[in-house]
Amino acid sequence: MAKRICKSSLYRRGFTLIELLVVIAIIAILMAIMMPALQRVKEQAQEMACRANLKQYGLAQAIYTDDYDGRYPSAWTSLVKDEAPVAGYQRYCRWHDPRYPADGPFWPYLKEDKVHLCPSFKVLAKSYGQQHPYHVAANPVIPYYSYSMNGYLGSKGGATGGGVLKLSDVTRHHAEVFFFAEENMWLRPGCSWVLNDNALCPDGRDWFGTFHSRPSGNLNGGTCNVVFVDAHVQEVRSALKENPSDNTEKEFGQFEKYGWPHKKPYQ
């Protein structure tokens, strides 16, 4: 004869509503604890990928200058040949408009397109890409490069032209002069110029980015990645502080760090 099973014993095998709520609460607490740590791990992975990109920039620099008798490309046209590919084009949008593919002389030396774009920058562009100065709503926000060349390397006269430098013209220690670096896409106090071209002019107009290793909710409080002429990559903080009148880390009292390529100080 089959053994009869008491209904009450079946009920005892399940969870009560209170038990389920307790389990859900514990899971929620664990997730709240783990999510910031997981986010930090994700950001660290993105930063590592960014540094690897810039390392490739540093290596490609040697190949490029060897092919061009030691000369650097123009900082303004290193990645794109023309900042305004069509008449009336807003050059501030060039970095996020792949309808006009990159055609600058340095671009082909880095054959994988993803090398030109920092993963952290790509993520931020989803939220802040349309907020950059002079954005044209008709232009798609699909970033495809995020690094800018040292304006002093790509022009003997800074922003005034005068021909490009040769590698041999860099008389300051090569580990102290940056080749490419990151810029922000948004304005911040004391910085009226953002990623609007291929050149980072470190003469008090353009400044390093601030979006790596940043405090929560403060896009202007972090660091950026920089590749130097000697091809080493380093995480640095911008010399432009939250108080723009703070000149303690500015070179020559007004410039971004690591831009000046000459051993003789700027005058």
Task: Explain what the structure shows.
- The chain has 267 residues and is an alpha+beta fold.
- The chain has a domain at 53-236.
- The protein is built from three helices and five strands, in the order αααβββββ.
- It has helices spanning 7-12, 17-67, 119-128; strands at residues 147-150, 178-182, 199-200, 224-228, 233-236.
- A five-stranded mixed sheet has the order 3-1-2-4-5, covered by helices on one side.
- β4 (224-228) and β5 (233-236) form a beta hairpin.
- It is globular.
- The termini are far apart.
- The relative contact order is 0.14.
What topology does this entry show?
Blueprint: H1 7-12, H2 17-67, H3 119-128, E1 147-150, E2 178-182, E3 199-200, E4 224-228, E5 233-236
Parallel strand pairs: 1-3
Antiparallel strand pairs: 1-2, 2-4, 4-5
> Between the first and last Cα atoms, what is the distance in angstroms?
105 Å
Residue stretches low in confidence (pLDDT < 50, at least 5 long) are: none
What portion of residues belong to β-strands?
A: 5-15%
Helix content: 25-40%
User: From N to C, what is the helix and strand string?
Assistant: HHHEEEEE
CA radius of gyration: 25 Å
User: Count the helices. How many?
Assistant: 3
> How many strand elements?
5
Please state how the strands of the largest beta sheet are arranged side by side: 3-1-2-4-5
Mean pLDDT, to the nearest integer, reads 89
Main pleated-sheet profile: 5 strands, mixed
Shape: globular
Backbone structural class: alpha+beta
Short synopsis of the structure:
With 267 residues, this protein is α+β, with helices and mostly antiparallel strands. Helix content is 25%, strand content 7%. The chain has a domain at 53-236.
